[in-house]
Amino acid sequence: IYVDNIEHRQDAKNICDLLNTRIARLYENNQMDFKFKKFALECAITGESVGYVYHDDQSNNEVTDILSTLDIYYSDETSDDIQRQAYILIKQRLTVIEAQELARKNNVPEENIKLIMGDNETENEAGADSQEFDDKVTVVVKFYKKDNVVHFERATRYVIINEDTSTGLSLYPL
Questions:
Q1: Please, which residues bridge with residue 20 across strands?
Q2: Cβ contact 118:137 at 8 Å
Q3: DSSP letter at 129?
Q4: Most exposed among 85, 96, 109, 112, judged by the fewest C-beta atoms under 10 Å?
């Protein structure tokens, strides 16, 4: 930050120090060294790598996940510009308990939460993810823009976990 007025330089330095401390903590908590290596390897192998950034309520921090290119679907697969996509789908495999807790946090009725069950839908998975586990369920997150603001919905096959929810962001968090 450049400050022309000498009276505000110390304030600007303090703000920069706070920001640097926050970024260093996020970098360490997210194990970014490991994730950057994974990101580069995925990009070298497939030609593409996608990071997904979200806020984790439990840790009260931003979290970065590296997505498999098999788990992301664009509205227009021929466009290179992620921000111009009409929508983006992210497929996740969560434990049934994680998905049910997520639904409870979003005030989904208990009778609907009981419909969140393991699904063994792993035919499109690779490696360790391809093994079938009864305690995992496929969750799809749909991002889309409404009035230039990113919104999302999250659902399993039978249960909507989040209905139209604004992120407050103008860019997709990818």
A1: none
A2: yes
A3: G
A4: 109
d(CA 123, CA 125): 6
Instruction: Convert the pLDDT of each residue in 24-54 to its tens digit.
Output: 887 787 788 888 888 888 888 888 888 888 8
* Assigned token pair, 32: 């970014």
Element (H, E) at 11: helix 9-29
Question: In angstroms, rounded to a whole number, what is the distance separating the alpha carbons of residues 22 and 20?
Answer: 5
Provide the 3-class DSSP secondary structure of residue 20: helix
- Alpha-carbon separation of residue 17 from 5, 24, 62, 79 (angstroms): 19, 10, 19, 39
DSSP 54-119: EEETTTTEEEEEEEPGGGEEES-TT---GGG-SEEEEEEEEEHHHHHHHHHHTT--HHHHTT----
Give backbone dihedrals phi and psi of 115, rounded to 5 degrees, phi first.
-80, -5
